[in-house]
Amino acid sequence: MIALLFPANTVLINFAIINCMDLLERLANGNGRWCATVASECGLSARAPDLGALAIAGDIFGPVESTDVVYGV
Question: Model-level pTM greater than 0.90?
Fold first, then answer.
């Protein structure tokens, strides 16, 4: 399985702005991954006006797991 990695929350914010988190979920298709920094930034961004849709990002990408860490990149 190939993971779809999101190293920044800019793309996530863009999907939230256009109210298409459902499309992002379909594109990720259960293979979306994010790092702890992006998960944290996304949580903070979800508090901003018009970005509440980001609250479901955790459902799309799940928890950050230590096995998701890539070294030497």
Answer: no
Contacts of 20 (CB under 8 A, 6+ apart): none
d(CA 47, CA 31): 25
Q: What is the pLDDT of residue 70?
A: 55
Region 44-72 average pLDDT: 82
Per the structure block, which two tokens stand in for 27? 């594109």
Burial 37-54 (b: 16+ CB within 10 A, else e): ebbebbeebbeeeebebb
Residue boundaries of the structural domains of the chain: 4-68
Between residues 2 and 19, which one has the greater pLDDT?
Answer: 19
